[in-house]
Amino acid sequence: MRSENLYNEVQIPKNLLLGTATASLQIEGGDTNNDWYRWANTPGNIKDGSHPERCVDHWEKWREDTQLLSEIGIEVYRMSLEWARIEPECGKFSTAAIEHYREEISELRARGIIPLVSLHHFSNPIWFADKDGFTNPESVALFLRYTEYVVNALKDLVDEWVTINEPNVYVTQGYLFHTAPPNEESWRKVRANLLHLAQAHCLAYRLIHRLQPEAKVGFAHHIRPFVPLNPESRLQRQLTKFSEFAFQDVLSDAMLGGSFHPLLGSPRPAGRKEKIAKGKYYDYLGVNYYSRTATSKLDDGVVPGTPRNDLGWEIYPQGLIEITQKLFEKYPGPIWVTENGTCDTGELSAAPRLADTKLESFRPRFIYDQLRCIAASDLPFERYYYWCFVDNFEWSEGMAARFGLVYLDPHTKERIVKPSGHFYQEIIAKRLIDSEMYRKYVSGQEYRSEAEVRLP
User: What is the pTM of this model?
Assistant: First the structure.
């Protein structure tokens, strides 16, 4: 599909650190004690039939991956911890697991890479899932106990934390759309999960600051622009406003400002006398941005005739500025783009023995377009974490959906830096995108049209 191929030099803002992101379940492999391992054992739950038991083998290959991060020049790195490894049984913590993470984080810091550590990124220990997960009011206390253990164990190495990743996506996938465990459909459980996740974040924010006053704490919020599929339809305009509020604004208010709308529930957690007071529960605005939604009913539609990635998601770079501007006006603070990336499978038959230009088709253009929007904005962007570092297990899509700067051979687990990874390396080193870099990496690249999307 024709993309805007006009070149503008991009100067990376002085205060913007560039990095990349991963999640433990999606890269580590080797853990059989989490709900996604169990979910993937049922045929049909993962579209391409792959499994997180091995995925990227990062648990064994973390030194190789850390070396690659350093070679690319990554300044900041977002990673998550696997709760199921750290607390394999309820109330029993693994010294070996936490020592493994300490070693990995120490190596990152030794290479000058600042870690941003997520405490919860979708996956749960099986024992926690069997207690009904965050549907259970007791989940808040269980999450806080885990948080306290981890922060005490790592606070000499980590002072930047994400409490919870994309609570709205976690809940809707697991309790509405049948694309994640526990594979239920219950509006009651949607509400209960969102409430307890919001309570857990607010209390964890206060807890971490008691344990580590200098820490920077936030949550990674998946937000997007919502537009009516038919702007002339009054019903669709109303549905658009409701969808935006219910999917993201109700959580923004609770998890950033401690304001719990009746749609969400009471700000008083189970077993506590005091309710969560209104106030500030963030040190940065963590924004995960991928696409926008065209609303015609309560679903995730796409504007016709727009550029797409290989999962059919609209590529809409200016949406990042639109949604952060709106959020910043209500909750001012430093903006950290905790995730932003795209699925680009390149030539599906490509193997590492082929030219690396076959490994992707438009990711360099995507990175250019996103950074161009950020550089032109006067919003206080401080961090940009490209999602993701290496092709990984992309939840219900499996290994086929490739988001990485680094190619992963699905058989040998060999890592090969893609053109986008080399492009990103030059951007970090030069702090700009000049005409020569644009010609080398971006010029002529086109996004997919709806008919050209590669994955179902």
Answer: 0.97
